[in-house]
Amino acid sequence: MLKYQQIALEIEKHIEENELQQGDKLPVLETLMAQFNVSKSTITKSLDLLEKKGVVFQVRGSGIFVRRHKRRGYVSLLSNQGFKKDLKDFHVTSKVIEMDVRKPTQEAADNLNIGLHDDVYFIKRVRYVNGQTLCLEESFYNKSIITYLNNEIVSESIFHYIKEALGLKVGFSDMYLHVDKLNQEEAAYLGLKEGAPKLTVETIFHLTNGQPFDFSKVTYNYEQSQFFIQANNELL
Amino acid sequence: MLKYQQIALEIEKHIEENELQQGDKLPVLETLMAQFNVSKSTITKSLDLLEKKGVVFQVRGSGIFVRRHKRRGYVSLLSNQGFKKDLKDFHVTSKVIEMDVRKPTQEAADNLNIGLHDDVYFIKRVRYVNGQTLCLEESFYNKSIITYLNNEIVSESIFHYIKEALGLKVGFSDMYLHVDKLNQEEAAYLGLKEGAPKLTVETIFHLTNGQPFDFSKVTYNYEQSQFFIQANNELL
DNA sequence: GAGTGGTCTAGACCACCCC
DNA sequence: GGGTGGTCTAGACCACTCA
């Protein structure tokens, strides 16, 4: 683990353990440099990482402060595949409905940048939170990258498996959001009425080298759809 | 303008003007260092900025590549208040329905971190894209920060005014998303039927010093709700 | 193994906040 | 004006990719 990552983790841990609140001030740079025995740029890099994650904000000439939001029960849209973290106070389960190797749909092939005759793992599952339906998820994994999957892996965390067992590195993702009305099939899976509101999130996950490996389409139960995004606006 | 920002702008411009596509390779670091006559860290900082913006991705041992998404007509959820940019091919207008100085609701006061007896500017407007309703927006501005607003400013870009005329710096924002059904009033403004799907986005904008100055609640016409997010997943 | 991006350092100087 | 974060440099060394 790199120094700046390690330091970021420790600072984050420190904030959590001491239950620091929005606006609480952290030690000044010089103190942190001494405390972790590293150069200024390394500390700065740690803090930039935490700023990107929405954990702190830095004010020139003033200090480094804790960033926290007040509302509970919201899922971060950006910490991908992170229901475990965000809903840690809740009980999230999932039921696999279909899982097989097949040829992709035109849509999946386009998004994964593969041909119609390449193989994909197709997984369809319903996820529940506290016994209520949370979402219906359909995923296509490029089989030439994700070479093996089974029911056990799919029931647990697929991404954990991809990172740890396959040794792949997830880089970035493109997400597309739509709001519409549930069709009959979706309504049935989610236990709602046809025509009820839905939020659809399509995500294309890429490895660090830019190769797309997963196209997934998730339809959320609108009654459970509470999402949260922390944005930084300094991008010009 | 700082060097690294300037360089980032030029690289971005270069990508746009040459219509580079996803996966196209940019010059190597050493070349860029020479070209802009700056040190390695400065170039790195420029590229980190562009990576955060979703314009490029960097692969260790390989190169720097252009990041582009394929779909058109999607609005970035993160480039706040950025309809102008994203929908530049479209015609976005807005109609101010209400605008006055008043006392905040309990909800607005909580989110703006002010008291019930402090003043806020309240603005309610409907925005249109190509003649169709896009959203209904209700905003509360902390009057002790945003000291003056008028109809002309509100019809144009409020954020441009805040930055340029008031000299304030926008730092970060917290966004909360919900999906639900339109009530009667919202349906009337959006020209839809009561009970139709809606996406509600509540945003709390903060200055760089962490002070919240704007709480806004936007209800989108689901027929126009196509949003896009570029995420980076390397946050541990 | 050559090429390429990433980390880390030490230090100078700058820009901003607040008293 | 003192305190504090941000920018920028030059250079050493490390880690990954790909032929």
From TrEMBL, chains A, B:
Transmembrane segments: none annotated. Keywords: DNA-binding, Repressor, Transcription, Transcription regulation. Pfam families: GntR, UTRA. It comes from the Bacteria. One of its GO terms (molecular function) is DNA-binding transcription factor activity. InterPro entries: Bact_HTH_transcr_reg (IPR050679), Chorismate_lyase_/UTRA_dom_sf (IPR028978), Tscrpt_reg_HTH_GntR (IPR000524), UTRA (IPR011663), WH-like_DNA-bd_sf (IPR036388), WH_DNA-bd_sf (IPR036390). The keyword Transcription applies. Residues 1-69 form the HTH gntR-type domain. This is GntR family transcriptional regulator.
